[in-house]
Amino acid sequence: MSSIRVVIIEDDDTIRGGYCFLIDEEEGFEVINAYASFEEATKKLQGDNPDVIVLDVELPGMNGIEALPRIKKLVPKASVLMLTVYDSEKTVFDALAQGASGYLTKDSSADKIVSAIREAHEGGGPMSVNIARLVIKSFRRNQDSPLSKRETQILEMVSIGKSRSQIARELFIDLETVKSHIKNIYLKLDVNSRADAIKTAKDNKLI
Amino acid sequence: MSSIRVVIIEDDDTIRGGYCFLIDEEEGFEVINAYASFEEATKKLQGDNPDVIVLDVELPGMNGIEALPRIKKLVPKASVLMLTVYDSEKTVFDALAQGASGYLTKDSSADKIVSAIREAHEGGGPMSVNIARLVIKSFRRNQDSPLSKRETQILEMVSIGKSRSQIARELFIDLETVKSHIKNIYLKLDVNSRADAIKTAKDNKLI
DNA sequence: GAAAAATCACCCTTTTGGGGGGAGTTTATT
DNA sequence: AATAAACTCCCCCCAAAAGGGTGATTTTTC
Prior knowledge:
Two copies of one chain form a homodimer.
Chain A: E1 4-9, H1 13-25, E2 29-35, H2 38-42, H3 45-48, E3 52-56, H4 64-74, E4 79-84, H5 89-97, E5 102-105, H6 110-121, H7 129-139, H8 149-159, H9 164-171, H10 175-189, H11 194-203
The structure holds a DNA duplex.
C-alpha cells in the first residue's frame, strides 16, 4: 500500500512547516511538496501528482477560491481540502461549488486534519463542525412562515421558472386559483413581481 | 454545571437500550427518557424538557422526518440529532430543511454519537462524513459546462425569476443581447422554455 | 362558529417570452 | 495570422403570460 501523496499550499511559513512535519510524520502519508502561493505551485503541481491538496483560502496573490478551479484543471484527480481561518458563508459555498472535497477551519486539531486528509482521499467529505453548522443553517427553513402550505408549494414552483398555467396543470387546479394564490403571496411578502417574491422568500428561507 | 438532558426516540429495542446506557453513562449526560415511537413520545416530551433529542429516521407510524416539525413545535429549544441507516439525498435535505441540527448514520461509533450530541447542544452541526459528502456533492458544480461564463451568469439570473429586461439593466447590456444569450442557452441545453432550462441546468449542476 | 386557507370567476392593460433571421466586435486558442 | 467561440446588438412576429382589481364559494382548522 503506497502512501497518500499530499501537497500543501499555505503562505504562513510557520503553519506550513508545522503541517508539513505533522502530516509527513504520519504513517501512510507523504508530503511531496509545500508552496507559499498558487503561483509558486502552478508549474510543479502536475509533476507532484498529489492525491490530496491542502489549500489555504487566504493566499497572497490569487486566493484559494480563485485558484481552486485552476488546480482542478491541472490535477483533476486530486482531492482538495480547503483550510481557512474565516468561515464566511459565501466563501464556503463558493469553494464547495468549485469542487472542494472538504472544508476545515484552522482551529482544527492536528489529528482532525490528518484524518480529514484520509477521508477526502477516500471520497468522504470532511467538514469541521462550524462549517457543517453553516451548511445546515443554509438548509434550514423558516419555521414560522407567513405563507400557507399551498402558497409555499406554488412559490416553490414559481421559483423554478414554472408558469401559472404549468402550475395549474401540475396541481390539477384552475389557472385562476393559481393567480389568486400568487396574488396572496405577493400581498403577504409585500412584493409585486416573481423575482422579488423569490428573492424575499429565499432571504427569509421560506423556500 | 448541569447535565445535557437527552431524549431518545428509536424503535429498535436493542439499539435504544444500547444508546440509553451508553449516553447515560457518559459524564455530563443524562438520558431523561427513551421512546419507541413519536406517538409514544408526544405527550411526555414537553415534560421531559430535553436539550437534545436523538431521533431515528426510520420509525414505525410517523417517520422521523414527519415527526421533526411537530417535535420542533413541542420543544423548540431542543436540538434534534437525526439518526439513520440510509443516507438518501432527499431524506437528508428534508431533515435539514425541517431544522435538524445534525445528521448521523448508524454506523457511527459510540463516542462519535456522544460528541455529536455535545456539539449539537453547543450549536454546532455534527455530520458524519458520508452525509457531509452528500451535501458537498450537492453543492458541486459541473466542471465542464457547455455554457459560457456569461451564459451561466444569465441563466443564474433567469433561475431566480428575473426577467430579460431586468437582467439587461443589471448587466448593463441591451435587452436584445440578453435574448440572444438565452436563445443560445436554449440551443445548448436543447430546451425551449425557462422552466426546462432551469431544470436541465440544475440536474446537470450547471447552476 | 369564526378565521384562515383553498378554490374559482371575469374584468382590464402591459410586458414578456419564444422563434425567426442577420451581423458586428472582442477574446482565446491554435 | 487565422479560426473559433464568446459577446454584443439589430429587426421582425405574435401568442402567452404577468400583474392588478374585485368578488364569491367551499373546505379546513382552531
